[in-house]
Amino acid sequence: DAINAFFDGTLVGEFQANVQQDEFSVSIKTEKLLKLKPFDNNSEYAQNPVVFRAINETRKVVNAIVQKYGAPNAMNIEIASELNKSFDTRQKISTQQNKNEKERKNAIKQISLITGLDEREIRPQYIERYLLGELQGWRCMYSNEEITNKKEAILNKGKQYEIDHIVPFSRILDDTLNNKALVLARENQKKGARTPLMYLSAEKEKEFKQRVNKLFKGNKITEKKYRCFMLESLVGED
Predict the structure, then answer these.
(1) Which residue range or ranges hold the HNH Cas9-type domain (predicted)?
(2) Among 84, 116, 151, residue at a domain's last position
(3) Angstrom distance (rounded) from CA 186 to CA 162
(4) Residue 180 region by backbone torsions, left for phi larger than 0, else alpha for psi between -120 and 50, else beta
């Protein structure tokens, strides 16, 4: 083509410039064709705000990739589990999260009043101890002895109190509050790598179950925490 253009009287530089311009124009047109167009607000996707937002953000990412690297040969897309949940389920999760955040903020204020610490000095473990103490009515979950010194239980300077994994962490790998209890250090040492029902005496076990049932019926603890408290054996929990 370049030779023919030369014989037709076109300068070589001019011919190359025309070719580059044509290639650039084709590239721009191709890129526009490859890019995903914005979705119509009246489309079916718009009926679900979560889905619409996720797809629209994906569109922007894909277009940025096309613009920089060209069209990909393939794309693997993982759908977030949240998209599969119903509106009611997501609403419940959101409500619980808001509730947890309010409890956390209130805990920080109360801990500051109890300990004299500035709110900025309050550590996550202090909040955890306070929340467990409140949940348990400031009593050791295993012995039912009253926790009279809340400041000590929260800061644990004297190492009198410990947060115990109700079911040994090595068994179920659960480090959430659903598997934790605030207890006297000596009670935790007695319990060891067992469940509460495996170490409590028959008399204490009966009283313990009554307290756990009361907490559960009063919606103070989750079903998961209830099951942890009531687990009688570690057989089959590996």
Answers:
(1) 86-238
(2) 84
(3) 9
(4) beta
